[in-house]
Amino acid sequence: MRRSSDPQAITDALAATIDAFNEEGFGIPTREDGIDSDANWRTQLTKACQLLAAIEHISGEGFYTATIELSFGATERSVEAYALAEGGDELDDFHDHTTCYDRATALGLLSDTTTQDLRELYNTNRTDSYYGGKRPTERQAETMQQLARSVHEYVTDQIREGGVCVCSSTDPTP
Asked: What is the pLDDT at residue 3?
């Protein structure tokens, strides 16, 4: 299929999105509040804060798939933040979604058993939630949300340079 046969709405939206990610045209970009870009570990940690805030915002509304996806993302960003802050890792070191768990064990953040369970949870359930035919449940969403929050709070307490977590300032309630 040639590009010229693709719907114009899709090709226009794709071109605009590519421009947006390349930050071309349209003046100074409006950046997301709450993301600290002073250091890669700060960026990852505050991205986790933002993901947790989004989860809180949709909590109780029946968006179980979104809650699960965002929870996996918040967990991953949190653990990556620790590896970047305390292990001297670089963002390029995280080439997949489970490398952060290996680093958590290597750096002594979590036990091998816990990180293997996190990896297995990701490999089995996130993949099934995302690609599988099963419908996520309320209990799965609630427990993933609690897991993400627990990991984030623990990681935040373990990073020597404190004061970066912005979870209390990203409360989505008016």
From this structure: 65
Domains of the chain as residue ranges with CATH: 35-170 (1.20.120.330)
Contact (Cβ atoms closer than 8 angstroms) between residue 11 and residue 3: yes
Tokens at residue 148, please? 């993400």
- Arithmetic mean of pLDDT over the chain: 86
Q: How many CB atoms lie within 10 A of CB 116?
A: 14
Distant-in-sequence, close-in-space partners of 29: CB < 8 Å, separation ≥ 6: 20, 23
Could you read off the pLDDT of 77-124 as tens digits, one per residue? 999 999 999 998 888 888 787 888 888 899 999 999 999 999 899 888
**Euclidean distance between CA atoms 69 and 105, whole angstroms:** 23
Distance, CA of 92 to CA of 112 (rounded, Å): 23
Task: Report the pLDDT averaged over residues 45-57.
Answer: 95
Distance CA 144, CA 30 (A): 31
**Residue carrying the six token digits 């918040």:** 74
Q: Which amino acid is at 81?
A: A
Helix ranges restricted to H, 99-158: 99-106, 112-120, 127-131, 138-158
Distance in Å from the first CA to the final CA of the chain? 49
